[in-house]
Amino acid sequence: MWFKHRLPALTHLLLLAALLLATLAGCAATTDADEGTESAGQALTCSDSATKKFKAKGDECQALRFSCPTSWDPFVDDCGCGCKLDTCKYGEKKYTKGQKFVAVDSCSVCTCGKDGAITCDDSACSCNPAREPTRAYIGTPEQCRAGEVPFTCPSWSTFFKSDCGCGCEEILAP
């Protein structure tokens, strides 16, 4: 009957162990934790993903010293610690997820994606003479349509007309 005196302590120990196991089991389930959202009753995502790489779990983080790749940032959360990709690196600058910025060509608009990838839309570059070094624009689209730009192209070039205007384009040797 020695265990009767220790029954309350044993019960507390079992409850603590059950709570610990439930917490650890919660970190194995999946929800949309990469977005920082969780609903009541849902467990956190604790597995590696394209934007999150775990280095250690739980208490191991206290003693662990680690470094992250250049565009990744260190994190500590309920499941552990590691490196996460909250930014995109373009040139020498970092951008946050969803942030738009002008590319080095000065006309493309780029976006920092959820996965750290950068996508650029060069539709704004369609009328950028700097990107067409073999063309010499002489008139605007309106002037070219109205025939207001009288000119003759040199023998080493040919006439062109586009949505951006008209002019002479260098003939490149085959």
Write a structural description:
The chain has 174 residues and is α+β, with helices and mostly antiparallel strands. Among the domains are: 46-85, no CATH class; 92-125, no CATH class; 129-170, no CATH class. The chain is 20% helix and 29% strand. It has three helices and eleven strands. It has helices at residues 3-26, 60-63, 141-146; strands spanning 52-57, 73-76, 80-84, 87-90, 93-96, 100-102, 109-112, 118-121, 135-139, 157-162, 165-170. The chain has a three-stranded antiparallel sheet, with no helix packed on it. The chain has a three-stranded antiparallel sheet with strand order 6-7-8, with no helix packed on it. A hairpin with a 2-residue loop joins strand 10 and strand 11 (165-170). It is rod-shaped and about 80 Å long. It starts with a helix and ends with a strand.
Class by helix and strand content? alpha+beta
Low-confidence stretches: 1-44
Helix and strand string, N-terminal first?
A: HEHEEEEEEEEHEE
How would a crystallographer describe the biggest sheet?
3 strands, antiparallel
Q: Could you give the distance between the termini?
A: 101 Å
Tally of individual helices: 3
Give the strand order of the largest sheet, numbering strands 1, 2, ... along the chain: 1-3-2
Tell me roughly what share of residues is in helical segments: 10-25%
Quantity of strands, as a count: 11
Mean pLDDT comes to 70
What is the alpha-carbon Rg in Å?
A: 31 Å
